[in-house]
Amino acid sequence: xxxxxxxxxxxxxxxxxxxxxxxxxxxxxxxxxxxxxxxxxxxxxxxxxxxxxxxxxxxxxxxxxxxxxxxxxxxxxxxxxxxxxxxxxxxxxxxxxxxxxxxxxxxxxxxxxxxxxxxxxxxxxxxxxxxxxxxxxxxxxxxxxxxxxxxxxxxxxxxxxxxxxxxxxxxxxxxxxxxxxxxxxxxxxxxxxxxxxxxxxxxxxxxxxxxxxxxxxxxxxxxxxxxxxxxxxxxxxxxxxxxxxxxxxxxxxxxxxxxxxxxxxxxxxxxxxxxxxxxxxxxxxxxxxxxxxxxxxxxxxxxxxxxxxxxxxxxxxxxxxxxxxxxxxxxxxxxxxxxxxxxxxxxxxxxxxxxxxxxxxxxxxxxxxxxxxxxxxxxxxxxxxxxxxxxxxxxxxxxxxxxxxxxxxxxxxxxxxxxxxxxxxxxxxxxxxxxxxxxxxxxxxxxxxxxxxxxxxxxxxxxxxxxxxxxx
Length: 472
Description:
472 residues; alpha/beta; 8-stranded parallel beta sheet; 7-stranded mixed beta sheet; 29% helix; disordered C terminus
């Protein structure tokens, strides 16, 4: 059914203005005023901002880790994302040595089938760069539209790849027009520090942070940037948590290296002291990289404002406190890494960023939606409000005040890391391709309506010249 959104304030990454939006067959067909149609449903957005749907470029749904499985699958995870104002996610497809890439991709398609309520795509993990992998990558990239590859520099003996694999991945990505993503921590150093801490009887959650120091993240970020420059390729650093890593990205960009950085809400508002909570409560905040000392937050906010960090992911990877996190009750290294973060990503950035004057409205939209759409080959169908774009739209009430809590969130887990946090702003109605997913704060969609998206490659992505790094 045709819809007309009236009386709202449209906000994109570049403009803020009052106008109405006409939607037909899931696409924005007109933007202006005075629209009238007998067969159209009128959606009153009075008092609301009208944002393009959020794009979360970093999620882990239905993912195995540490002998258990993330609590949120594609149904609960995408539903929670929609409640939070996100209409597209890009999830990580994990692979294994010796197993064809196409088998891993098929596994992830099956995870999402008949469950996702919003649109989704995949990043592909690279654990080795063999002749078989090199032969498969062009096929997977073209047939599946998977144009971003993830390399872990940490989690030794589990996910970690060596520098040779990273470098070969960068070279292959350059040829394919793909974007390489890195989890940048020095896994070898961390492995040594973890073993040493356990040998000394240090088992509490705080030692998760103390054995993964910011220097290990900064070093790995700098190393990855150097290899990217050497390969003349392109890099995206996920979940930047500290000043050390943000500075390495800024330095590399100043040299003309094609590098981008993502941070997450948890690193902007939470700090290392949360891991010291008594009665094992600190385990709720165990994820990697770990939370840092509070002073790092200002550096991250400044990097977002100045454009040295460009996107906000959630790094959603949820485990129950009771029954999963407590697997590491006597050994912090066995606490499943990750948190329930997908739902509050957009609202926290609005409340802590826009409302507190750290970033402006247009920067906010760019950070939670537009830049990720451009970098990952979704733009202009996703990530903006324009004629011809998918009608992925969020009506956001900026005036409402609320308290974040596990009592009212929609994730499948038994705690919320932002418990008790007072924020301002709330998604009220969320449309995906013109269909209601959330209507007046109620879930109204059917599981399985979400569509898999084949993405354009990095070289084809419509990134404006002013968005790019200086030419070499």
